[in-house]
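User: Predict the structure for this protein chain, please.
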Amino acid sequence: MLSRLSTRLRTSVAAGLAALVLLGAGAWWLRGHLYDAQLAAAEEDAKSQSREISNGYKYGRQVVDTWQLPYVVLGSDGHVLIMGGTLTTQHMTGPLPTAVPRLAPDNWQSVQRISIGPAGEAAANRYSGRTFTAMGSWSPLLRKEDDQTKPLVGPFTVYVLATPFAAEASLRSIDPVLRAGVPAAALLVALVAWAATSRALRPVDAIRAELAEIGEHRLDRRVPVPSSGDEITRMARTTNATLDRLERSAVQQQRFVADASHELRSPIAALRTNLEVSLAHPERTDWPAATYEALTSVERLQQLTEDLLFLARGAHPATAGQFTAVDLSAVLRELADQYRPVLGARLALRVDAPEPVPVLGSRIRLHRLVRNLLDNAQRHATAEVVLSTRRTAHGAVLEVRDDGPGVPAEDRERIFEPFTRLDEARSRDAGGSGLGLAIAADIATRHGGTLRVAHAPRGARFVLELPSA
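Assistant: Here is the predicted structure, written as structure tokens:
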């Protein structure tokens, strides 16, 4: 039920209930402590009065019935001799209190429960029909004879009632205050919790309202950041950082879609133009050449589609397959054997991989990474491409170098963005799809490594760094 209420209401109710329980427990303890303290004081007064009365009997003084507390005197046979104080019109019920035993020490004391029976309307008082704790002491009645003190009669047992009337009066005074004060204090705590929670959640309401206004086409807006420096401030900053990433992702996605559409339109337009011209003038068409041009456009279109699909699937880790130990030196040698027949005498392809360099990764994707780097190098190299790999203290390093025009320093990060071509490689026929280096950088990142363009005296130098297996 509470889960359907607002946060501030749940917090206020919880704070009020907790305060009510704690204050109620405190009030109950206070009542008990006050009652016990008053009753203990009454018992001490009863002990003192009991000793005074017994001492009066002991030294033969006449006991005047002026005591504040009621008392009972038992004879040696245990029967009631006197019911003093306000008990003169009352009678006891139940078992009589214990009389002093024979040979009892002088400091003998006893604590008994004495029940006062009900009385008629004329004789009834506040003692009637109640049971009290009685504090007992004793003394024989003595006389002096020949300078010696000898017992005359006795012994007598004196019990004085420790009445709880003062404690009960204190409770009657404090109970109305507690009954009104405890709920009022709990309500005050709930109101303070409501006010504090409302103030604390005010920035959250502002953040929620702003987030509700942010849509697909308004990702440039940000939520307000409170100046309190607490958890809500950190939440607002994290939300704005998330919105920053979403905006960058949306911009990159829009640019990617636009670039992909532009790249796909070129081979499709070339293919359509070629087919339309061939169909318009079939008698003058060189059909083998036209078919070859159409096949070239289809191959370019297929390669571009495969690259786009690879980038799209790369966001899902499950598509990478199980990582295993891969020898980078073996990868370089395999690819060199595949490319040498294609390069022929135009380019020299040299491999510098004297020892195994194991890394942990996907063999298929690492082949794709090196192949993309090799395609880029042979496209721009003048006479030579060098592949090398080596171990380092922190992992493995693979380099692909060519002796071409190189990459300007200002373009060494931009070159890894999708569909990026440098000015000297703008031609789509010679410059590829513009996705090869982006795919290579993505594969490196998903293997926990980095791909960068390093400084080289001549040409371009691509450096791949991966953690060792």
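Confidence is low (pLDDT under 50) at residues 424-431.
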